[in-house]
Design goal:
The chain is of the alpha+beta class and about 170 residues long. The protein is about 30% helix and about 15% strand. The protein is built from 4 helices and 6 strands, in the order ββββββαααα. Strands 2-1-3-6 form a 4-stranded antiparallel sheet. A hairpin with a 4-residue loop joins strand 1 and strand 2. Helix 1 (about 80-90) crosses helix 2 and helix 1 (about 80-90) crosses helix 4 (about 155-165). It is globular, with a radius of gyration of 15 Å. The termini are far apart. The relative contact order is 0.14.
């Protein structure tokens, strides 16, 4: 599995690392005192099946998510996905969180929601929001393929997209 860590706004580790389960799920105990800080969730490593090509065993790169201070409480879910990584990278580059969310929504026509788990199946109980989150994650996999890049290059591509968006425009 991948390794997941949680850092505060100054880069200090506050929880983890923990290893994800085969399906990418994880549980990490964040001290209550850290919940009043901005938090950065990061994963690296592990493998996945590329949604666009069906290639199995692709080595995963970095995924991330940003949680504003006081936005999480016991039992909160934070799912690391391509769109969350882009928003997180915008914040890390100095863009205020609200501006990062607005810029992302303007350019991609949807809002990042790290509380929804992407689920790519029609199993009983899978919500439309989960299916839509999976479709949105798959779109970044497809974009990577459309650029004739190998599946593992999706992760540096996310960083490049965030760098491009840092001026507020995807071009």
């Amino acid at each position: 599995g991948a390794s997941v860590t949680v850092k505060n706004g100054t880069g200090d580790n506050v929880a983890g690392p923990v290893t994800t389960a085969a399906g990418g799920t994880y549980s990490v105990a964040i001290p209550n005192s850290a919940l009043s800080e901005d938090l950065l969730f990061e994963s690296s490593g592990g493998t996945f099946t590329d949604e666009a090509t069906g290639t199995t065993g692709v080595t995963a790169g970095r995924l991330a998510a940003y949680a504003e201070a006081n936005s999480l409480r016991a039992g909160s879910a934070v799912h690391l996905a391509p769109e969350a990584t882009i928003v997180c990278d915008l914040v890390a580059s100095g863009t205020p969180y609200d501006n990062a969310m607005t810029t992302f929504a303007k350019e991609f026509s949807f809002v990042d929601n790290t509380s929804v788990a992407p689920v790519n199946d029609n199993a009983t109980g899978t919500t439309d929001a989960q299916k839509l989150a999976a479709l949105r994650a798959m779109a970044f996999s497809r974009l990577t393929g459309d650029m004739s890049l190998p599946p593992a290059d999706q992760f540096p591509l996310l960083s490049e997209i965030a760098a491009d968006l840092s001026d507020g425009v995807l071009n």
